[in-house]
Design brief:
Layout lengths: L1 E5 L3 H12 L3 E5 L11 E4 L2 E4 L5 E2 L2 H9 L6 E3 L6 E5 L2 E4 L4 H6 L5 H8 L13 H9 L1 H13 L15 H7 L6 H10 L7 E4 L4 H10 L4 E2 L6 E4 L24 E4 L4 E4 L1 E4 L3 H8 L4 H8 L3 E10 L8 E3 L11 E3 L1 H5 L4 E6 L12 H16 L4 E13 L17 E3 L9 H17 L4
Helix pairs in contact: 1-14, 5-6, 10-11
The structure holds flavin-adenine dinucleotide.
The site of flavin-adenine dinucleotide (FAD) has 35 residues, from helix 1, helix 10, strand 15, strand 19 and helix 14.
């Protein structure tokens, strides 16, 4: 069996690795000349700047890669034991994420804190409930709107009022085994001393990991080679959703699909698409127009990152700016200097909710806005050193993501992406490993 993989971001790289570990034939195509997708580490003014994820969690899946590729020496542990701040009423307040912080923070009033304690009395998500409705019902308005909602939705740039539980936070809670009470689950994990995996990165950034993966599997990965179309192999029947894996049809050649690139056309038995949904839609149009139409429904939110130099020196993981703070034009800050000891570096995020002209503004304008808001929030001046915009950007997990229910790829077409699994790097590695297991086991159409 040969598996063709479209894209060599974290999903594609983890998939190539897992399939090769199973002894499968795999060929991957990556449009860019560098691997990693949104994982891109750069050196700017002698500092490591991450254009995508700023840090990782040291999950078992990541740890096994670190050992296999000898990356222990450059592994950098982050300082986890620091607060996250919320910008509220013109001031920085601690987000209550531990029992101690919940008692001491002045983000929530004493009555608001009592209301939070009633959370176990309120049941699990209701059908069609939004993230905002669910969190307000469970924790009360103050906690839901001042930090719980924005903490979840902030990275995606979507208002919690536009996110349905069943297609967003509800899936996260289910994965974490939360049935009725979030608070009781947190207390249970504190009692059992179960720790969240530590924050990590590498001396030269997360790019070290994707470079190591790409080099280790260089024979199977074609960089700088965009796939232009995916087509069913001539003469084979159209889409088949009944799980017939197509092997053993008596013809000898079991290939079901062709991956077309500028240089060659490669025949494969199975295709795994790892690109964002709008690109997947274009590529899969010749295979199944209905599937392409479903993929086109998923919305993404563009996001801008401005990297700032400042001698602020505060101790914390970052700042959350709730969407209700409508006088502020950024949605949050990562304090890279404090988390990973990155010299004087801070990352500011802008999305269309916090800064509607995001896509039309020049880099210079974004830099100015971010530096101005940084100073307003922290009191310290800052200088922009780099700007980056992502488009299509972050999966929105808004109401358009009900399209997840209608994704019915024909036999031999698979997805390994945020529209079938969790978007974070640990989720991408888990998704890739599980799919490789299924493909190698021959149990997957
Ligand atoms: C700003 C930002 C911050 C984030 N922060 C965190 C974080 O702190 N922690 C965390 O765990 N996760 C974080 N994430 C999420 C995580 O980084 C991504 O979800 C994950 O890296 C996505 O990997 P992927 O391989 O699925 O997709 P992508 O990285 O999008 O990879 C898809 C690949 O497909 C390639 N491609 C596109 N078209 C074609 C084509 N026609 N032919 C061949 N190849 C093609 C692209 O070039 C790309 O390399 C963040 C993401 C962003 C953008």
């Amino acid at each position: 069996m040969t598996v063709g993989v479209v894209g060599a971001g974290m999903s594609g790289l983890a998939l190539v690795r897992a399939l090769e570990q199973h002894g499968e034939d795999v060929v991957a195509f990556e449009a860019r000349t560098e691997p990693g997708g949104v994982v891109q580490s750069r050196e700017v003014d002698g500092r490591v700047v991450e254009l995508g994820p700023q840090r990782l969690r040291l999950t078992p899946g990541l740890e096994s890669m670190i050992d296999d590729y000898d990356l222990r020496e450059s592994l950098r542990y982050g300082a986890d034991d620091q607060p996250i701040y919320v910008y509220h009423d013109g001031d920085l307040k601690v987000a209550p994420l531990s029992v101690r912080e919940a008692i001491t923070t002045d983000l929530i009033s004493p009555l608001g804190k009592l209301r939070m304690l009633l959370e176990p009395l309120f049941g699990p998500p209701k059908p069609d409930e939004t993230v905002d409705e669910f969190l307000v019902r469970k924790f009360g308005k103050q906690a839901a709107r001042r930090y719980a909602g924005p903490l979840y939705s902030g990275l995606y740039g979507t208002d919690p009022r536009d996110m349905l539980m069943a297609y967003s936070l509800g899936r996260v809670l289910e994965k974490r085994g939360v049935e009725r009470s979030i608070l009781l689950k947190v207390l249970e994990s504190v009692r059992s001393d179960r720790e969240t995996p530590p924050i990590v990165s590498f001396d030269d950034g997360i790019g070290e990991l994707v470079d190591a993966l790409s080099e280790a599997h260089a024979d199977s990965i074609h960089l700088g080679t965009p796939v232009e179309a995916i087509r069913p192999v001539d003469g084979r029947d159209g889409p088949n959703r009944d799980g017939d894996c197509g092997a053993g049809d008596g013809g000898g050649d079991t290939a079901r699909y062709e991956l077309e690139t500028a240089e060659e056309t490669v025949r494969v038995d199975d295709v795994v698409v790892t690109t964002p949904a709008p690109i997947a839609a274009e590529l899969l149009e010749p295979v199944d127009a209905d599937l392409a139409a479903t993929l086109e429904r998923f919305t993404y939110n563009p996001i801008g990152l401005v990297f700032l130099d400042s001698d602020f020196g505060g101790r914390g993981l970052g700042t959350l700016v709730p969407p209700d703070a409508d006088d502020v034009s950024i949605s949050g800050l990562t304090w890279n200097a404090s988390i990973l000891d990155r010299d004087r570096l801070y990352t500011a995020y802008l999305d269309p909710l916090s800064y509607p002209p995001l896509l039309e503004a020049t880099d210079g304008e974004l830099g100015q806005v971010a530096a101005r808001e940084f100073e307003r929030i922290t009191g310290a001046p800052a200088e922009p050193i780099h700007v980056h915009r992502w488009e299509p950007g972050m999966p929105a997990y808004d109401r358009s993501w009900t399209a997840m229910d209608d994704l019915e790829p024909p036999a031999g077409i698979h997805f390994c992406a945020s529209y079938v699994g969790r978007p974070g790097i640990p989720g991408r590695i888990r998704n890739a490993t599980a799919l490789a297991d299924r493909l190698a086991g021959g149990a997957d159409g």
